[in-house]
């Protein structure tokens, strides 16, 4: 129940939903690419991405100085959410 609550709180944010939508269309993306696409600062975008990583909706990979993000398509909440975003 805690995991569900945490994930629902994470996706109950318009900016995080925009991150998910952009990753669905263009993944993988760097955090800086995401920031540019949604019009937020790098610092703010990183915090939003971290919330999505914390509940396992997004996976992050560090490659040299860049942090790449992609959706965790195995997550049951994400699969359900994506079907409703279309």
**Total domain units:** 1
What is the third-level CATH name, the topology?
Answer: Arc Repressor Mutant, subunit A
Supply the CATH architecture: Orthogonal Bundle
Dominant shape: globular
Q: Quickly give the structural class.
A: alpha+beta
Strand order of the largest sheet: 1-3-2
The helicity comes to 55-70%
Largest sheet features: 3 strands, antiparallel
Give the CATH superfamily.
Winged helix-like DNA-binding domain superfamily/Winged helix DNA-binding domain
Name the poorly predicted regions: none
- Could you tell me the number of beta strands? 3
Radius of gyration: 12 Å
N- to C-terminal distance: 26 Å
The first-level CATH class name = Mainly Alpha
In percent, how much strand structure appears in the residues?
15-25%
SSE order, one letter for each helix or strand: HHEHHEEH
Task: Estimate the mean pLDDT confidence.
Answer: 93
Please report the number of helical segments. 5
What labels describe this entry?
5 helices, 86 residues, 16% strand, single chain, Arc Repressor Mutant, subunit A, alpha+beta
């Amino acid at each position: 129940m805690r995991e569900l609550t945490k994930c629902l709180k994470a996706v109950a944010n318009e900016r995080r939903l925009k991150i998910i939508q952009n990753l669905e269309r263009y993944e993988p993306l760097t955090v800086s690419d995401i920031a540019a696409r949604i019009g937020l600062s790098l610092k703010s975008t990183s915090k939003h991405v971290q919330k999505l990583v914390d509940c396992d909706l997004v996976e992050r990979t560090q490659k040299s100085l860049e942090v790449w993000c992609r959706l965790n398509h195995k997550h049951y909440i994400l699969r359900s959410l994506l079907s409703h975003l279309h």
